[in-house]
Amino acid sequence: MASATDTVSAGSALAGGGDRTGVVTRFAPSPTGYLHIGGARTALFNWLFARHHGGKYLLRIEDTDRARSTDAAIEAIFDGLEWLGLGGDEPAVFQFARSERHAEVAHKLLEAGHAYRCYLTQEELAAMREKAQAEKRPFRIASPWRDADPASWPADKPYVVRIKAPREGETVIEDLVQGTITVQNVEIDDYVILRSDGTPTYMLAVVVDDHDMGVTHVIRGDDHINNAFRQIVLIRAMDAIEGSWPDPAYAHIPLIHGADGAKLSKRHGALGVDAYRDEMGLLPEAVLNYLMRLGWGHGDEEIISTTQAIEWFDIGNVNKGASRFDFKKLLNLNGHYIREADDARLAALVAERLPALSPTFDASPDLGGRDLDLLTRAMPVLKVRAADLNELARGSVFLFAQRPLSIDEKASGLLTEDARALLGKIAERIAGEAEWTNEALEASLKAMAEDLGLGLGKLAQPLRASLTGTTTSPGIFDVLTLLGRDESLARIRDQAA
């Protein structure tokens, strides 16, 4: 174990050791809950870094917490990553399945004298902790078993295996995001790598898995900075034993805060990625664009495609400070991507939401997809005013409403006795139009308004109420052409005097 100053160079992993060439990153979530938005950003930065350097991006499920890890959470993580286009380049590694390999490394450390059996009881540890508190000093494990002769190890008492951390000098990490970080080695404790039941701890498993997966760059949240210094102890010890255990390059990215600067919580939008898709109706490209701009950017660019991001991404340009989550900006960005999206794709996404809003909507193949076709044709005029798929779905309900329409309170207020009489005249006027097009209908109604000495709005308002049951909709001539001649006239006549 080195006792002088040790440095983890930002470029050391790229140079590699043994047969390691090229960049390999990993995203390693714990399946104890949903894939949250902060985890999605970490995955994205790993993915972008690997793509930028022509390397590999791998997934690892850290499921060693058997009591809290669930199959449902694993499925949700994979589902969220696939939706964002961040699936791994190879099948995911499951950490628990590698427990024997982790224990094997622990025993190598033990045999080489880089780790030791510790027989301290919970009572003895508690007494040490209480003494440190009484003396107002940080608690550090000072096990009498650290330097004990292995021949003195009891054969019939339970023990844990602890790593021998260096006690002199300092360790310096040249972090790709945070810059130079220095820790005095005396602050690194002899932490447990094998529990008393022989199972490996998280700290050991992470180091072994990163090595075996060939990870060159560890890009993760800055709440893991302290773990980096502890994990380096294991890496250096195994390199001393076997060689070819190079230090990875570290990049610790800041956490995400709410718009008010507080730690991100559900009230700020810290929900599972599935909620952004299912409940909020966001598009994956919008979420990706927003996440990459949370702490990283390229000049003043706000709209960044994944192709551009791969070209431009530089981990060194990630901000050191926490980013603030702004849901309004995310919605604005989503509105942009909705306007840019393919109409057939949007229609298919909206169709999944419509049955809950419109019982008559039916896009089943046996109807020839007529409803879906209508929805697709409506997208150009519906998407210009929508910020998310939910708004698109609500805005399209009128297309599939059953007659007689249910008229909401505001629309009902427009359907006065005079307005209903006017609707009868409108129906009579447009029924004779040879062409049912925006241009023909607009010209006809404008002429009618002039003949009656009215503004076009006086016709459009009751007309919209009769056609949609609401006071908001796409342009009235778009509504007429989408509904078609027969349906439009029937709806108008339902409300006419």
From TrEMBL:
CDD domains: GluRS_core. Residues 23-330 form the Glutamyl/glutaminyl-tRNA synthetase class Ib catalytic domain. One of its GO terms (cellular component) is cytosol. ATP binds at K266. It catalyses: tRNA(Glu) + L-glutamate + ATP = L-glutamyl-tRNA(Glu) + AMP + diphosphate. One of its GO terms (biological process) is glutamyl-tRNA aminoacylation. This is Glutamate--tRNA ligase. It comes from Novosphingobium olei. The gene is gltX.
